[in-house]
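Trying the structure run again after the queue cleared.
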Amino acid sequence: MDPKLIKDCVHCGFCLPTCPTYVLWGEEMDSPRGRIHLMKQHTDGTPVTPEMAGHFDACLGCMACVTACPSGVKYDRLIEQTRAEVERVHVRDPQERAVRGLVFSLFPYPRRLRLLRPGIGLAERMAPFLERVHPSLGAMAALAPRVTRRQRLPRRVRARGPRRAVVGMLTGCVQGEFFPQVNAATARVLALEGCEVVIPPGQGCCGALSVHSGHEDQARRFARRTIRTFERAGVTTVVVNAAGCGSSMKEYGELLAGQPEWAARARAIRTVDLAEWLAELGPAATRHPLPLTIAYHDACHLAHAQGIRAQPRALLSAIPGLSVREVPDSAICCGSAGTYNIFQPEAARDLGDRKAKSVASTGAEVLVSANPGCTMQIASAMGRAGGSIRVAHTAEVLDASLRGVPL
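Done. Tokens:
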């Protein structure tokens, strides 16, 4: 934990109403400034106690406080440093260690995730039993979406019409295995907008899940592999359709700062979110009408970490016949936050229920999100509330409009 970054906090309290856990519990130590106070205690010599670790674990890392802070406190860096320190010095109980070990030996590995897909239906039915074994196991079973079929992507998708750019595309781990239709739609949209899309084989996790949970060595290993993958593919711009992945890849330079050669190689590759890239590129293909009312959900690592809010709204609003509605309290996290809804299922469920109620109040037919975790979290919460709303990715909506087909 960097003492200089800790000193930037003046404890003004502007972060409090934006912090999901403070909104839920009203506890000072479960607010950004409260956690920063605990960080200072540790740098001053106080060991990490189980209670202290609990307050750090309860943070979603949503970065809403970074947006709200008038002093420019880099809480995102502080909480990542803190989590790495917690993982180094804090001894968790055996059951928790086992669950965390299962998650981090499973989720970042697409092939292992693929083996789980046939059993998702059974796991969903067993969720109540698994929850009694351990709440995290029940949460995993309840959240996993059913995948009807796998969609194989070619290694290269040619641009439709005049070629305007050549870009790489990240397929990801959770996105690629649980939401293959989003990757397929992303490739089509890019091609229809004049991009030649390079999709290198053998991709895996970008390291987002690991870095957000304090597993720095694993995160660096995944980052180096991702850099090598796109270097070999010969692309210098990589388009990402998952908010958490894009946020982490944009910070590879900092993650690999201790390895100057790798940091330089990371900075030589430009990472852009899909909406960010399309807005910068400008439209080339005709948009066909989509007579729908949608609600747009701000994924935290898109809105707060990357500062991308206007671009997806502008892209969606440009579709004829499409009405975009805002979700109340959109700055408050849905409770997904990478692995948060697995490790902190009770708090995540409360936040998911709040978000589901806000989404339902819009009266929209479709909820549009730009992160697979948010999609699973909100869909699950809507189901618990007895509601039904389709959740789609920005890429799927654009794809339907560009091809002139129903969503």
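The first strand starts at residue 156 and ends at 157. Worth checking whether this holds up in the mutant runs.
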